[in-house]
Amino acid sequence: MDPRQLAEAILSGQIRPAARLMRLLDDGEPQALEALKLLHGHTGRARVIGVTGSPGVGKSTLTDALIAQFRQRGLGVGVVAVDPTSPFSGGAILGDRVRMQRHATDEGVFIRSLATRGHFGGLTASTQGVVKIMDAMGKDVVIVETVGVGQDEVDVVGLADTTLVVTVPGLGDDIQAIKAGILETADVFVVNKIDREGARRAIAELQGMLELAGGREDRFGWTVPVVGVCAVDGRGLEEMLAALDEHWAHQNADPRRLASRRRQRTRMELLDLVQTQIMSRLTKVMDQGRGLDDLVERISQGQADPYSACDDIISRFLTES
Amino acid sequence: MDPRQLAEAILSGQIRPAARLMRLLDDGEPQALEALKLLHGHTGRARVIGVTGSPGVGKSTLTDALIAQFRQRGLGVGVVAVDPTSPFSGGAILGDRVRMQRHATDEGVFIRSLATRGHFGGLTASTQGVVKIMDAMGKDVVIVETVGVGQDEVDVVGLADTTLVVTVPGLGDDIQAIKAGILETADVFVVNKIDREGARRAIAELQGMLELAGGREDRFGWTVPVVGVCAVDGRGLEEMLAALDEHWAHQNADPRRLASRRRQRTRMELLDLVQTQIMSRLTKVMDQGRGLDDLVERISQGQADPYSACDDIISRFLTES
C-alpha cells in the first residue's frame, strides 16, 4: 500500500491501515511521513482531551469512564496512552492499561500506547502524529493520557483542547503533587478517591492554590473547577463530564480561543520535529570518525572541558552538514 | 570579579562565590561559562547520589536524613533539588524543600533548587553545572533530588554515581509507580512509609519485578537491594545508608565501573549542551522576519503541513547560520 492508498483507507475510517501507519511511524519509515502529510489537511475536527497526574491517582480508570460516557453518546473515541518511561510501544500492555481492555472489542474505540520518542520527532510530535491519525479516521474524541508529571508530560498534555489534571487526597503533602507547571496547564481538576480521608481538605487546598496562583479564572475568562470523584463507584463522574463539556463549549464560544490553543500546539509540534531532525543529522556527523567518543574520552581524561567541546561540535556540524 | 577570580574563590570553598556563579549560569551570563571551564579540571572528586520517585513518596525527608548522616561523618554535603515543573530557581522555596531547612544554618551543607532549563544547556547540563560547582568547592557528597518520574528526571538522576529510587506501599497498583525506565536506573530501592498497610507486599512485588526484568544483578555484578524504611521514625535509615555505601564501595572496587558511568554522564552533558546551543541558534534564525509565526499560521490555515515546514526550516537554518 503506497502512502496515498494508506491515507485514503484511513480517511475512510479503517482501523487496520491506521494501526499500520502508527507502526510505520514507530519504525521510522519515510513513507509514514508521506502519509501523514496527506492526512494533515483532513485533521482538526476531533476534540482532544488530555488526562494527566502522578502515578497511581487513577488516570486510566477515569479515562475508562470517559470512554464509556462518550460511547453512550454514540461518539467514536481514540485513546493515546503516553508513557515515555516504558520501553514498550504499540499494544496496551502495562498494568494500568488493562482496565481499558473492556473496550478492546468495541469497534468505536481505538486504543494505542506510545512509549518511545519517534524517529521523526520527540514525544510531542510523536503524540501529535498518533492523534492526527485518529482524528483523520474520524474519531470524534481523542483522549491523550500521560503517566508522570515531568516537563515532557506537561508539554504533551498541554497540547489538548481541554486538560484534565487528576490528583488524590493524602498524596504526601498535596502541595507536592500539584506543581506550578501543572496548575497552569489544568482546565479541570479532579480529586479522585474522595472516599479517602482528607478528601474535603484536598479539594479546599487545591482551590486555595488556584486562587494563590492568580485567581481561578484564566486569560480567556474560564474558571478552573475542582471536581471530587470516586471512579470506582461512579460518584462525581457526571460532574466531571459536565465540566469537560462546559470547557469545550466555552472554547467554541469564541473561535479565537480554540484557534490560539491549536496554533500553540502546531508551534510545539513543529519545533519538536525540527529539533529531532537536527539532532539526528548531528548524530550522523558525530558518528563519522568516532567524533563523539573521542571527545568524551578527552573530557574524561581532563584534556578538554564539555563547554569547549560543545563549540567544536557545533562548528563541525555547520560546516559538514 | 572576573571568571578566574570567581573560580579561585570557589576552589577555596567559599559559599557566596559559588552561589553567585550558579546565579550567573541561571541568567545566561557568558562569564559563567568561562568560570565553569576553569573549574571543570578540578571536579570529579565528589560522590554523586541521585534520589528520585513519584511526588509524595518522601524524597525530601529521606534526603534530609541522608544529609544528617553524612554530616555526622564530618563530610561536606551539597544538595541540588531539581524540579523542572516549578517556575522558581535559586532558593529553597517549595513546600517539600522546607524540611531540609533545618540544615540551612549549617555551613557544611549547601542546598540549591534548580527549576528552569538553563541558557547554556537543558536540564542535564544545568544540573551537571551545579553539581560541578559543588564538587569544585569541595563538597564530599552531592545529592541530586528530582521530583517526578518523567524521562527528563530519569535522565538527570541516572547520571549519579549511585541512584536511589523511592516508592511507598499502596501507590495505586505498585506496578504503576515503578516503570521499566526507573527499574533500570535504580542501584538501591527504598520503600518508604513501611508503617503503612501493604508494605511487605510492596517490597516483595518490587523484588519480583527486579527478577522479571532480567535478574537483580546488573552488568557490573551489583545486586539491587530493596530496603524498607520509615523516614519519620528513622526505621531502616541505617540499612539504607549501608546499601548506598556498599554500592559506592562496589563501584570503587573496579575503577572501570565508575569511569564508565561518568563517561556516560559526560556524553549526556555534552549532547545536552550541543542541543541547547543549536536550538538557541535556530530560534535566532527563525526570529528573523517572523519565520516561525508565518509557518505556524500557514499550517493552521491548512496551506502547509508541519512535516514539509520542518524541512524548510532546517534548510534555512543550515544556509543562514
Automatic annotation (TrEMBL), chains A, B:
One of its GO terms (molecular function) is GTPase activity. This is LAO/AO transport system ATPase. Signal peptide: none annotated. Residues 45-254 form the AAA+ ATPase domain. InterPro entries: AAA+_ATPase, GTPase/Isobutyryl-CoA_mutase, GTPase_ArgK, P-loop_NTPase. Belongs to the SIMIBI class G3E GTPase family. ArgK/MeaB subfamily. Keywords: Chaperone, GTP-binding, Hydrolase, Nucleotide-binding. Pfam families: MeaB (PF03308).
